[in-house]
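Researcher: Go.
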Amino acid sequence: MDDRLYWLGWQYLMPGAGKRLWSLVERFGSPRAAWEAGIKELSAIPGLGEDRANGLAERRSKLNPQEEAEKLDSMGISYVCHSDPDYPENLSAIYDPPPVLFYKGRLQAADTLSVAIVGTRKPSPYGLVVAEKLAKDLTALGLTIISGMARGIDSAAHRGALASCGRTIAVLGCGPDVVYPRENKELMDEIMNNGAVVSEFPPGTQPEAWRFPVRNRIISGLSQATLVVEAAERSGALITADFALEQGRDVMAVPGNVVNPLSRGPHRLIKQGARLIEGAGDVLDELGMEKLFPAQASGADRKMKMSYEEETLYGLLSLDPVSLDELIIRAGLLPQKVMAALMYLEIKGLTRQLPGKFYIRTGRDLF
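Model: Structure:
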């Protein structure tokens, strides 16, 4: 067997073990030498011990890497090893990249130009629209969107990328053949057709809580920057942001309503120095790419298109707060249309909601 198959075998035996797996192979000099090591040699490894070494050796004796590679092929699942030339460049540069990455779909060199968009599983309508719009605008400019296919912001980011026929990659905390959450089956199929679904966990691996923080380092590792849209102060999205900082990547955040608990995570990041993001142009500027897309990035030189409802409400606003009830009366529109238009105006940066459902114009008529 060649080294790729030995690496594959170890990934089956120690999925998600990153640092420990690298240390084990480095100790013996190659994945093959580690595979052929006896129990006594394995027991001598710090932190492993005789009991664990026995268990590892027993599982190893029952695993045939060649057969597993054939099973992967029959399932339409590919794998790439860290030593392969087509291993993702961004991921290869982090401290503890997975030695083997399983995937369905296609990985491309162009995916190096990528941004992770992550956030809460229970977002507000504002958060969903912002995540989807940012993903749509960024993929239209040629960037790949990375996320975790979780409910909420992650799914909105993937959908935004797909809406512009752009590339997107989902990083799973389970096997690449396992749909989680289950309602994302159709979304997962679309992602595979327009990018890739990847995981360091072998096929059949079921989602467990500990696997998601582990996979978050891959989300940030595949990306040049991580953008957080709505997240509580303690959340997986902030774990991903922490990984990004450790990996030397940029961290960005979208501001939100100050009374919304889901704004606390992004606002904390902004206070700590994360770039405040209001649109795709800000992302390009932070990454130093604005000169690569001068026409697209010059949104400040174009009037933002507004619907009839948005124009009507925007004309009623000023720097003096106006209540929602008053806006409904003065606009002569149905309450649900007023609410929807105000939400879009806020997303475009044209209005701001104050406590008590009062609204003001931000002073910006450009986006």
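Model: The radius of gyration is 24 Å.
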